[in-house]
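Memo to structure team: turn this sequence into structure tokens by end of day. - J.P.
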Amino acid sequence: MEKKRSSFTGRVGFILAAAGSAVGLGNLWRFPYLAAKYGGGIFLLVYIILAITFGFALMVTEIAIGRKTGLSCISAYKKLDKRFGFMGWLSALVPVIITPYYCVIGGWVIRYFAEFVSGHGKDLATSSADFFSNFIGMKGGIVDNPMLWFIIFVALTSAVVIFGVEKGIEKVSKVMMPILVILCVVIAVFSLTIDGALAGLKYYLLPDFSKFSSATVLGALGQLFYSMSLAMGIMITYGSYMKKEDNIEKSVRQIEIFDTGIALLAGLIIIPSVVAFNGGSADGINAGPGLMFITLPQVFNAMGSIGGVVGTLFFLLVFFAAITSSISLMETVVSMVRDKFHWNRIPATIAVMISMIAIGSLSVLGYGPLANFKIFGMQMLDFFDFISNSVLMPIVAFLTCILIGHVVGTKVIADEVGLSAKFTGEKLHRVMIKWVAPILLVVILVAQILSAFGIITI
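Reply from structure team:
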């Protein structure tokens, strides 16, 4: 058992690691789809307003809880108030459920990157729908078996986590995050050079207030909540590794800029290029895997000679985004195991890795041998996504607001944030955590559940 808790070397390391967690697949396939669906520019405006209010308050709260307690989420809530100890277990379920299926999708990304880097991107584009369905349906040979690529992705994630906070997570984040930004900018420039891309750019950036609706707010709110790695135990865990002299408020603002900036760039990559590919229509920007693994390979192919290069760079970008998020998810689970059982990092990581492979195999098989087995009409991966993202996360965040806003008091957070610098956003934080955020979180929970069962559409 290590007596001293691991820590980041400084604020830059913390910011890049936390930003790496926040920047993930949700930024690269869900954000552009929602922006296209809810009016482009008006969606961006609503999203940014929510990011600097709702998102700011929740992220500051979680990081401050982690730094104050010096514990992972499984023990942090209990230390604040014994009556809320159950929340540690509730929040612990989120990364335990998300990490395995996230790594499954990460495996898909590696497979597609391998196709493009080997020069087969053009062949892939001509049969993208069939290739994707056959691949996830386990209808190919060993190389086309998604279980293999899933295990590779889990192994890569585990290797970084084994090296620890400073030598593993921080070092990888300091390399990958700047490269990720550069790749985003380069690919966005490529996308904007396509004939017809300017129509998509105009739709994406210019707010059209006639397209504003409650659905726009719900879409932006849901995306922001998931994008910023809130209510997953991640920010509490990373906060517990943060030094007392580091400025929490300033760090959160910079993480928000990083996360929102990458999401905006992802939209610049996808919306103008797909609009050009569809002859001026944004309707072809579908959600989820269909966009990433079916539509975009066709778009890259339509770019001509540079398509293969852009496709290769794009899937490298997606890989970086996916693995920085999976690292934070796995680190959160490893941290919980170490706090609970007092294990050293290596055995804890190996135990978590084996568990992730076992649980994730259900999501892999869910499109193959277990394709006919569904829960509430959902495939295994979709069910895990629904339970974690649409049910558990809003509940955990809501209870966190109740604990901080109405039980222990927001002063606990303000005092922790104020250790390094004056908390300039204290009034905003207090109002959001006590009154506004709980209401919004109930709205998210109800809307997501109703949407999942087809009662409403968001």
